[in-house]
Design goal:
The two termini are 12 Å apart. Helices cover 16% and strands 24% of the residues. The chain has a single domain (8-222), classed as Dihydrofolate Reductase, subunit A, CATH 3.40.430. It is of the alpha/beta class. The structure holds NADP nicotinamide-adenine-dinucleotide phosphate. NADP nicotinamide-adenine-dinucleotide phosphate (NAP) is lined by residues 13-14, 21-22, 26, 28, 31, 52-56, 59-60, 84-87, 89, 128-129, 131, 149-154, 157, 182, 186-187.
Length: 241
Amino acid sequence: MPMLDRPEILVNCAVSADGRLAYAGGRRARLSGPADLARVQWIRADVDGILVGVGTVLADDPSLRVHWEAIDRPKGRSPKRIVVDSNGRTPPGARVLDGSIPTIVAVSERCTRAFPPEIQVVRAGTDRVDLARLFAELRRQGMRKLLVEGGGEILASVLAGGLVDRMTVFVAPVVIGGASAPPMVRGVDLAAGRPSVPLTFVTAEPIDDGVVLTYVPARPSEAPARPLSGSTHPDASKGPE
Ligand SMILES: NC(=O)c1ccc[n+]([C@@H]2O[C@H](COP(=O)([O-])OP(=O)(O)OC[C@H]3O[C@@H](n4cnc5c(N)ncnc54)[C@H](OP(=O)(O)O)[C@@H]3O)[C@@H](O)[C@H]2O)c1
């Protein structure tokens, strides 16, 4: 099998039953229960990097660290934190810039912002971060597995760019609604050239009071648009190959 010119990319996020990532205006929603939070920590502990967009940093100020105590494991190696931030909008006081964990800020070539010396700045893309170029650079630096946690614009870009190997979505039993609560995928027009991003359903596992859905990208032969209703995909029980 040819080596990918990028790390293996896992996407994980939590949404409401109506597919929202957060409350109105992007205010953080705690959608996961304790078992799902622990599941996410297991994934974080297993990857080399955890990536979010600057929109998530501005909205949530996440630490992007492994909470070893939540999985009852001794502290291990921390995955690198990666913030996708074309113009250097990450606030100086953001937790991702606290220097406690190796951190990369990916910027565009036009970015003039200076970051603290302990932050690695990677330039990829002229006006906006080119994720394929960034991922190639991360692979070149030895990163084998990358977890993309959001938000909606980053998820749109990785899905539209065919840059996802596996996607898990925790669906919480709550409806958020409203016009300004961000959907799971937004930003770039996924419809550019194709009507949808076809996925293969793998599993649905009850966890806490919700469900974790796992998907992998559909193989090219499965790519034609599927009807909106119908039976389970024929490969659903096989899992990823
Ligand atoms: N429930 C969950 O699991 C979960 C997880 C994460 C986030 N969230 C929520 O998601 C919301 C934030 O999402 P968001 O969509 O506003 O922001 P985002 O996806 O975190 O970040 C988007 C920003 O990233 C930058 N960017 C640079 N290159 C990009 C590229 N190639 N493709 C896409 N973005 C690129 C852009 O800003 P520049 O142009 O300035 O670079 C863009 O505005 C918050 O409400 C947060 O609470 C929820």
